[in-house]
Design goal:
about 140 residues; mainly alpha; about 85% helix
């Protein structure tokens, strides 16, 4: 169905950037300080954790979708699917890291690019925090 098509599109995009980040990270490490297998393994485990987080987000969307259809109401920080927000966050985080890795490889990166990515990442984080603070203020 449509849900599955959309999920895999965003999941694949986030996953592709994770692979690019891992490769550029290894290249930057090899060029600069020498590749340490322990760091590379830790980085790989971290990527597995991020993939798990993405899958978890999309599964929550599916569960919430069924609950909402049954009339349950959830107070969410976004009016968007959780998996989509997590995907956007991962894409931005990986994008920042890729820029940093490329810079370590001597590739010139436009300063505005990293700045835009960081501002967008902060907006996502702050939006969810604001919603949580609003909720906390209502209960006091």
């Amino acid at each position: 169905g449509m849900w599955v098509d959309n999920v895999w599109h965003y999941f694949f995009f986030a996953f592709l950037l994770m692979v690019i980040d891992y490769i550029t990270g290894i290249l930057a490490a090899r060029v600069n300080e020498g590749l340490q297998s322990g760091k590379a393994t830790k980085g790989l485990f971290k990527k597995v954790g991020i993939v798990t987080l993405l899958v978890f987000g999309f599964l929550l969307d599916e569960v919430f979708h069924h609950f909402i259809a049954e009339g349950f109401n959830f107070d969410m920080p976004f009016n968007m699917p959780i998996g989509l927000v997590i995907s956007a966050w991962v894409v931005i985080t990986e994008g920042i890291s890729i820029c940093e890795n490329l810079e370590r490889l001597g590739v010139p990166i436009p300063k505005w690019l990293v700045s835009v990515l960081r501002k967008t990442q902060n907006k996502i984080d702050n939006k969810s925090n604001e919603k949580q603070e609003d909720k906390n203020n209502e209960s006091t």
